[in-house]
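Instructor's aside before we start: the two examples that follow are unrelated to each other. I chose them only because their records fit on one page, so don't look for a connection. First example below.
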Amino acid sequence: MRLRISSIPTPPPSSPPGRLPLHASPCPPLHRHLRRSSHPISLRLPFPNPPRFLPRPLRPRCSRAPDSPSAWIRHHQQQYCGSGFGPAPNTLTEPVWDTIKRDLSRIVSNLKLVVFPNPFREDPGKALRDWDLWGPFFFIVFLGLVLSWSASVKKSEVFAVAFALLAAGAVILTLNVLLLGGQIIFFQSLSLLGYCLFPLDVGALICMLVGNVIVKLVVVAVTLAWSSWAAYPFMSTAVNPRRKALALYPVLLMYVSVGFLVIAID
């Protein structure tokens, strides 16, 4: 009995282990399964309902609009300035009495640094960081008024000379410190020199009430030393230690001139 070689089924080509032959499929096609099955197949997700854990978009909360303009301003100040960011609070709409109290408290706090100076302060150059010009202006005007009241003649000329001397002297001394390379703000230096006039204001007021020349000399010497001692820690730390004398000598000279006016005017 002869067998035909052509009828013998040829084995499929050998494939590497772990791989399927090219013509063999691991699973029957999906369309054949759909044709043979009589029951409909529903392709569903393993979850019974779609998950709802997606984050929702954030929406701005609509707050109630303030009733008055002042309430609207406070609302925006709390919204933008409460965390330390944004512009400074607007003080143009606050009551006048609040503004006066804030300025007076600032003047008193800055005056304490002069009345009770501490040369051993850790940061004497930054102690007067919250400077203002209302206090120095008041002390300059007050000293000019006291000197004009003490003069017997030409009171207006005395006031003009005293005011010009103090104002121009403060500007010149500030420019001197800046030209020496001092690390200080221009208006901060003006504020400092004006606050240091407070002891001389007290001395001028005492000398106006007391007519004895010896008492005047003692009072002026004490107040002059007081003013110089108050200005020393601020001006000395603003410049290089090698140029300290160049910055302090003009300050002492201006205060000596003011003390001479207090004694000489009668």
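Example two begins here.
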Amino acid sequence: MSDSSTLRSSPTRTHRSSRLSTIGSEANDKKRSIRGRRSSMSVKEVIDGVEITKDVIIGDDISKVNEKNSSLLSIKMAAIEEEEKHLMNYIKKLQNEKEEWDKMLQNYEKSVISQNQKLKAEIVTAELNYENKDELLAQKAECDAVLFQIENWAAKHGFSERLTVI
């Protein structure tokens, strides 16, 4: 019988002791929270099969975090506004540079068009000169041929010997 009494008393003791330890830990948590030591607790969460542990803020500390976040928010907003001003100035600078480049390109384009027209005029002049040279060379060739015929006729009739003496 002593075995059965031990078996009966054993589950009761275990149940009572686990219940007491839970109550004890809750009391300790409350004490820590009151003293300010316990400001957050870890919570496990499963997302897409992955267990993630997060720290959750408890009690009055939430207002402290909110105050801190609000001051951080104003600092962040000021930084964002400053960055916005910087970016706007940079955009203006880039737009001015773009306008300068556009003007330079327009001037370059005008210069290139002008040079192109001059080169076309020079090409036309060169082509005319080339045609004139061909005509002049053809006339010279005709003159040379006539002179050659005259020299041959003069040599044939003996005039070349008389001309050399004179």
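Residues 22 and 85 are 58 Å apart (CA to CA).
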